[in-house]
Amino acid sequence: MTAQNALLEDHSLVVRDGRILDILPSNIAATRYAATAVLQRHSHLLMPGMVNAQADAAMLLFRGATAGAPAIDRIVSPEFARDSTLAAVAEMLKSGITCFCDRSYFAEETLRTANEQGMRVVVGMPVSEIPTPWANSAAQSLTRCLGLRDKYRGDPLVSTAFAPRAANTLSEQTFARLVTLADELDAGILIDLHQSLGEISECMEMHGVRPIERLWHLGLLTPALNALHMVHLTAADMSLMQRTGIAITLCPQWDLKFGGSLPQIADFTAAGVRLGLGSGGAAVSQDVWGEMKMVALLSSAWDGAHAATRGGAAVLGLESEVGTLEPGKWADLCCVDLSGPATQPLGDPLQQLVFGGGRDIVSDVWVAGRQLLSGGELTRLDWPEVAARSAAWAMRMNARG
Predict the structure, then answer these.
(1) Residue 303 · residue 1 · CB < 8 Å
(2) Any residues with CB less than 8 A from the CB of 325 and at least 6 apart, and which?
(3) β-bridge partners, 225
(4) Mean of the pLDDT values across residues 176-198?
(5) Residue 52 scores a pLDDT above 70
(6) Residue 22 bridge partners (DSSP)
(7) Least buried of 60, 66, 256, 399, by fewest C-beta within 10 Å?
(8) What is the torsion angle, in degrees rounded to the nearest 10, for the CA atoms of residue 348, residue 350, residue 352 and residue 358?
(9) Residue 399 vs residue 152, higher pLDDT
């Protein structure tokens, strides 16, 4: 994913200390390096690990609730968030995802759980003025954010960002404090933006401007901002987005499922906007194969694959570390089997990967050089145990009386 449509055949990728050391023809690699372990995949394609730039890992088990389940509100807890995250990690690894971003009021549980499983994670730390399970006030929210950031500083698998919910949810004073902290710490900000017409109308009524304009007046529209959804945009909104260099994470399947519209994907790609892909919520699959196909259909296969890998890394501020196969970057890798019916006979690997591929062709996954999926099987996570705990939570959610 460094040069458009570049494909290296019969090559080897060499990993040392979790990072990519070299990429070279396999016959040369065999003589140049004395490897301690060699894994051969003859009918496969090795690509950068995919990035889910907006998952809903901590709440994934809500998908097991039936309509009108009576106990949902009572069971949300750190334990629920932990087991949800474990289930999400299993699903994402088996889908070829090596890094995900999550926002919930149980940020530390999500971070700790993903870290224990060796998954790369970006945690959006909640910033709220109303009481939540995370904090009771904006001041306490920011204090907890700083504490969590300091606790995991230096861990190569962990990144953090500030995560106010939307442009209408905080006062000018809180946003001003947030901007100052983000600038001082060189931290990212994640926020839902122009997701619905209701959100836009509410902002117009409360503040007299559209949400993106409010964030611009408050100093939030910088390259450090990752705007999620961005469905309903005017020409003026698009111009402001381009001028300020913000990043965008698209969640098209989520938006369509809940009555929204498709974002202006072709316009985004034509404008060179940093684009990542997210599943969006627990009610949809936590992989990004479907989102990749949607971008490809409205733009190109290259743009779809780029958004699912390098683009996802870029919107999360990780492009210098992951997202492409280059010496010096972390070995976050996804290996897919192209020998199956959906990708044979093989003509254009990129086109067939994007339009014919899916989670079923993922064979192996590495994060920072550690193999977490081998031959389609999880190497570290105990799926039968996680599945049993997930089923128990579903029973509790749907229990009557």
Answers:
(1) no
(2) 1, 2, 13, 20, 23, 46, 47, 48, 333
(3) 189
(4) 96
(5) yes
(6) 14
(7) 66
(8) 160
(9) 152
